[in-house]
Specification:
Blueprint: H1 4-24, H2 28-36, H3 42-63, H4 70-93, H5 96-116, H6 129-143, H7 147-155, H8 161-185, H9 192-216, H10 221-248
């Protein structure tokens, strides 16, 4: 069973991470991992995070299922699944530090561009679903950092923030399910620490989602995009920091 110090670090971090997830539809791993990894080994943390992501995204998907854009799911899901397979392979064979640094720099620049530029309507054709889906799936498998691409695509296809969150929650649930199956087949969930930590962090996840949903209902499209860009900025910065840590090792 995790000690008190571990819980004092992980519980508030996961509340914040899942509040952000409920608001913008992604960000849990990139918000929680840099902090929680200081007290929980990544081989333990990642399987725990995958289960919680699956539960949170499935719960949000059920709650918002009527608002999900099914046509967009059908557009992006095949490419996303292919990307998850490719990303899992690349995770094994490609050095991560340089790729993570490049990804972090790109996300930071994109977020700053969104924050500093004037809001204007932008649209993206459905054919771009293959690019966003494949790239998002690949980056999700490699870094846990691909859902922001789904957000970018969906915000250029949909007007309603609730529809964006609902659609994205479904896509994240599928990705999390694939990761959980992979971890289960490799025996990760036979580790008692993984089981204990998952059970103890379930209430933190639920509270975070509840708080995030309360806040999200008060967001119009402009505020939603502003929060999205701020999360992307934090995401990119986190990736750059993680890349520096990997490079140091």
């Amino acid at each position: 069973m995790p000690d008190l110090y571990v819980l004092l670090v992980t519980v508030p971090t996961f509340i914040v991470a899942y509040a952000v997830f409920a608001m913008v539809g992604f960000g849990t791993t990139l918000i929680s991992a840099p902090i929680v990894a200081q007290v929980v080994p990544l081989p333990t943390l990642i399987p725990v995070q995958s289960v919680l992501d699956l539960i949170a995204s499935s719960g949000m998907g059920l709650k918002l299922r009527r608002q999900a854009a099914r046509s967009e799911v059908l557009h992006i899901l095949p490419a996303m699944t292919l990307g998850l397979v490719v990303g899992t392979y690349l995770l094994i064979v490609v050095p991560l530090a340089a790729l993570m640094a490049l990804l972090g720099a790109f996300v930071v620049l994109y977020a700053l561009r969104g924050i500093l530029s004037r809001p204007r309507a932008r649209t993206t054709g459905p054919r771009w679903a293959w690019w966003y889906g494949f790239a998002g799936g690949t980056l999700s498998a490699m870094f846990g950092a691909g859902a922001w691409l789904y957000a970018v695509y969906l915000t250029r296809r949909l007007e309603d923030p609730a529809a964006i969150r609902a659609t994205q929650s479904f896509l994240i649930a599928v990705g999390a399910l694939i990761r959980v199956v992979l971890f289960a087949t490799t025996g990760k969930y036979s580790n008692p620490q993984v089981i204990w930590l998952t059970a103890l962090l379930l209430p933190a996840m639920a509270l975070g989602v509840f708080l995030g949903n309360r806040i999200a209902h008060k967001l119009n499209r402009t505020r939603f995009l502003r929060v999205l860009y701020l999360v992307l900025l934090a995401t990119g910065t986190s990736l750059l920091m993680r890349a520096t840590t990997l490079d140091a090792h």
